[in-house]
Amino acid sequence: MVQTDRYEYDSAEEELVYAELGYVVMNDAEGIGQVQLQRAMIHLQRADHQSARALAYPLTTSGFPILKGRALRIMGLMHLRLGEVDVSIEYLTQALPLYREEGLKSGLSHLLQDLQLAYTRVGRLEDAAACLQELITLRRKLGGADALALALNNLGYYYHQRSDYTSARSTFEEGLSVLGGMANRRSEGHLLWSLGDLNRDLGLLEEAGALYDRALFILPARAEPNLHTLILVSTSMLRFRQNRIREAVLLAEEAVKIATAHSLAFERVIACAILIVAEGYLNNPRGSLAKLGQTLSDLDKMGAQFEWIGVAAACARLWLIVGEEDKAKAICESALKRASMIDSAQPLAVEAAEDPLLARILKELPDNYVIVRDLKKLQAIRSEKEDTGSAKNQLPWASIPYSLRIFTLGQEIMMRDGELIPASEWRAA
Q1: What are the angstrom distances between the C-alpha of 158 and each of 102, 105, 132, 142, 198?
Q2: Which of 26, 132, 173, 354 is the most buried (most CB within 10 A)?
Q3: The pTM is what?
Q4: Cβ-based neighbour number of residue 404 at 10 Å
């Protein structure tokens, strides 16, 4: 299981062969089932959903509660990756009482983490918060840096979606500090990607780029295709924000290719969305708008609320480019309704912060409380970064960092307390 988390799949498979032989000799059906489910988890991380299902689904009716619970969790994760969130939640909630009754606290924490992701995907933030509260409590009691780091990653993402940027940053940085020098590329990769997204939304584009580069560097090829795809999508969005549109197109094309090859439905739709938007800015905005209508329909079917709002905001900006302000207002109204429903307009606020005309339209629309609130939070934290960015290192405690990480052999990177230190601040002339 440890080797699976660390992407050491060949070594994990070898251990499973020996474990299976031992269980067969002992005629231990439950042990054989555990081997089968661990193989399913490896297939799942590799995005081989068909093989994962073939191994896990038969055990969803097992007479062994532990096997049944793990099988239901794997099926739930699989459907989440395939964009079938309602089915995913059904499987994961079926597994909850089994984990509780068997007292599987570590397994329960992983299950709560998966369920929280599913709830967040469909905008059920209160349910996600309840999962996170129990999850973090369990992980702090149980210990284990890897699992706690991943739990903190999810908590930081929740704060990010709630526009609580200060708590998000401190939580991501705590996760990186928890890992310390431990060699867990999966946990570190998730945290670097999440912290990169946060920095991108706050306008710290160079810092975000360095974090994405580092995450891609430590992620082995084909180890976890869905994470690889999402980091590429985030990097493409960053290049778009930097007005490097052609690079954004190339990165999005690569993400679409990987997502398609591994049947990653959600990741493919998101990658296609940024590709279509970027192509619209390069060539034909009206043609891109027609394609984005289908993208919004696909996201609606998946129940992906945050992503729907983000793509709708991109559509509104394209309508403004072609001079169709009425159509921009119409889609902004739809986005505001969804934002009010989930009590978060974070992705809409980010787009509005980049486009003053879009911000003006949103503020003029009725029922605009949620966007006014979240845009105010974003603008306040961006202003704070601009005003105090150079002064931060002058604070008395700044000379005593909690963690200092230095990466060499290639592009030199130095990070203090999870924040990238620009080369100009440490490299000699």
Answers
A1: 29, 22, 9, 22, 11
A2: 132
A3: 0.80
A4: 10
